[in-house]
Amino acid sequence: MRYDHSDNTQLSAHFNVQEFRCKCGREHDIFINPELIADLEKLYNSLNCSKIVVTSGYRCEAHDRSVGGTGKGQHTVGNAADICCYGRDGQPISSKKVCCNAQDIGFGGIANITDEYIYTHVDVRNEKKWYGDEVISNNDVTDDFHKYYGGNEMKGIDVSIHNGVIDWQSVKKDGIEFAVIRAGFGKFADQKDQNFESNYNGVKSAGISVGAYWYSYATTVSEAVQEANVFVSILAGKQFEFPVFFDIEEQAAFDTGKANCSAMVHAFCVVLEQSGYWAGLYTSRSALENYIEDDIKSRYALWIAEWGNRLNYSGPVGIWQYSEKGYVNGIIGNVDLDVAYRDYTSAVKENGLNGFGKTTQVQIEPYFTASPAEPTVTTADVTITIGNDTYKGTLMKE
Ligand SMILES: [Zn+2]
Ligand SMILES: [Zn+2]
What we know:
alpha/beta, Muramoyl-pentapeptide Carboxypeptidase, domain 2, TIM Barrel, 5-stranded mixed sheet
């Protein structure tokens, strides 16, 4: 398509003609291939961008030459864009990741541009593919960016007693980099996952990063707080490189409505945070959209389940559980597969969270102990802040 220099047509949700104007300084017409815009939109979505800045779109022959081109390249026919993609955190997304996603979308020409790895050339050429890395040369460098750049994402699994006894050394050798292990469920300490200790020890000795989750049966805020306290008591004395999650997926919980579900997540996570943990939320994508308020989604580490090839969620995500039917060496039967979009480890350690603190061990009130021989604590005073409101009350030991 040909556009006048002053044309400011909105081409798609995120791109305007103006962004593709030639930067030579002369006010001439420009060309933009609609396929380029369609594919840039796909890239925007697949990378979960907050914006894509086009640093060079259409180039006239003279300008293409002046920036080191041949005067006949893809930019001169409106097929190409040099871009910087920004994530939801406002930071540029690595060009290595952009190249991988651009390859998956089907761009014909793709190249990293600078050694900062934040600028990427993409084009919709029809001729032979060009997968380049201009830091190295202008030649083809690979037939597969995933292979060439390696993963920017971490491969993981989540397990419970239902996965049986796990050979964690084999799991590690199979390329698994993190595991989220179930610590238990419900509001009593004797509902600790019976393989929690062995899984934790196995994961640690294999050198796999580990997080934990608590399967909730809570339908009220006070039950969520009880569950959180049991969870904290079970986590005590251990170290977790990944966040610890509130797993909400019971229909009985969802039936209490969005406001209550959000309040339960918040109440649970506050207890974990007050005990020095990086707290998070695990649930399905659809439940997240139907039962969790926006401020809660963005407040805690987010681990979303959506089985399939694509996570259809357009907000910041920490971990995506994409399959319940994976196979990993060292585990008999199916296992849940996950991908982490960030390595939480360094942030956890830098902030002294999740048991990595140098100072005090958090003292937890033993609301629900398995052993009746211990000193009896029959009540507990609890204060929770939800939004602008503070709730105080006494919980009775059952
Ligand atoms: Zn020009
Ligand atoms: Zn370019």
